[in-house]
Amino acid sequence: MKARYIFTVVSLSLAVVSGAFAAPLMSLPGESRKLKAYYYEGDHAGWDCVEAGKVVSVSMRDDTNVKDVSNTAMDRTRLSARLYTDEGIRVGDILYVINDSNLIIGKLEVKSVFNSASLGPMLVGYGNFKFVHDRDRVVQRIEGARSKDAYIQRARGDFYRETGDDAEAISSYKSALEKDKGNPEAHMQLGIQYLKDNMLPLAFREFSEAYKNISRMYDKEDRYTLLKSLAETRYREAYYSYIKADLREKYVVEGIKYCKEALQVYPGSKDVNFFIGTFYCKNSNPDDVLARDHLMKVVQLDPHHVDAYVMLSELYYKHRNKKKAREFSGKALEIEPEHERARYIYKNTETE
What is the pLDDT of residues 146-184, one digit of tens each? Predict the structure, then answer.
């Protein structure tokens, strides 16, 4: 009986100790507490903000050139802060530091956001922190803090999209944009839904809004998807909609631009290589060499890409290279025997 009692006490003690050390900062007082921040004594207006965390240390920023700054500024330009949560806080965001009287004593630009094994979510920011001390509060304006809610709504939209509920997905993405109108991921996903339904003007509008804030997209795959989607929208508008020649030319030029940017992120994209190859081939001022190079890249990446084979056969047919035109149209027909354009080129390149 005594042994069981000792075991129980020890177990409870360990649980309490573990809980104490494991408790995240978000459970501390002040989390998401709404308050007012003021610029000066006697400022009765102020602005609404939420407490995002507390200052851990202030030091000299990593890239400071000691020859270019005074001794006063050298050691007060880098701030580390422990956060309650890192949701809604991004690199490049502007946050503020306030003292016990809620007066603003520092302004920082977020340089990095990361998770510390011992302290949890943290940020490093740059600014002038002459009057800032450890334990001062870091705050975020309400407008910026709402991006946390936008993050939740966007995640909800992703869930509905993946489960096939397009209507709820669109509704969730729109809700995210009501809370953070510049949220690039929400604009992009909304654009993808419109592109899926071939609502091209609406899709391009959303992609363009996302593109304005592409610097907020830290995931390489998201950046690629956005640029590819912009290129695809212009591709469809240029070749699968009834538009004037001058407008088509504008879409082609823009499409090439987005393709180039997408290929900088992911050079091995067969879709983007096909789009840009087609743009170069069908442009009013075509570049047949670049068109060929990109289309050849496509068939290297995907030996069953019928449209790329047909475009290559078109290209060689235009230059009266019957042998190559027949070769590529023949490969297209091996994959899709009923392809009309491939059959036409193949038939008209017969040798006597």
Answer: 566 676 677 787 788 788 888 888 888 888 788 778 888
Sequence-separated (6 or more) residues with CB below 8 Å from residue 148: 85, 87, 88
**CA-to-CA separations, 331 to 206, 306, 346, in angstroms, rounded:** 38, 8, 10
Question: Kindly report the CA angle at 54 between 48 and 55, in degrees rounded to 5?
Answer: 120
Amino acid at 135: R
Q: Report the candidate in 47, 52, 50, 53 with the shortest Cα–Cα distance to residue 34.
A: 50
Contact predicate 15/44, CB 8 Å: no
pTM assigned to the model? 0.61
Kindly give the interhelix angle for 270-282 and 245-265, rounded to the nearest 10 degrees. 150
Instruction: Give the per-residue pLDDT at 68.
Output: 44
Three-state DSSP class for residue 271? helix
The residue written with tokens 């502007």 in the block is 94
Q: What CATH fold (topology level) applies to the domain 286-352?
A: 1.25.40
Closest by Cα among 311, 316, 245 to 276: 311
Residue linked to tokens 């017969």: 350
Nearest Cα neighbor of 305 from 272, 279, 342, 331 is 331
| Structure-token match 């003690």, residue found | 13
Buried b (16+ CB within 10 A) or exposed e, 8-29: eeeeeeeeeeeeeeeeebeeee
- 256 pLDDT above the threshold of 90: yes
Maximal CA-CA distance, the chain: 104
Q: How many angstroms separate the CA atoms of 236 and 275, rounded?
A: 10
Domain coordinates in residue numbering, the chain: 27-144, 286-352
Q: Which residues partner with 48 through β-bridges? A: 36
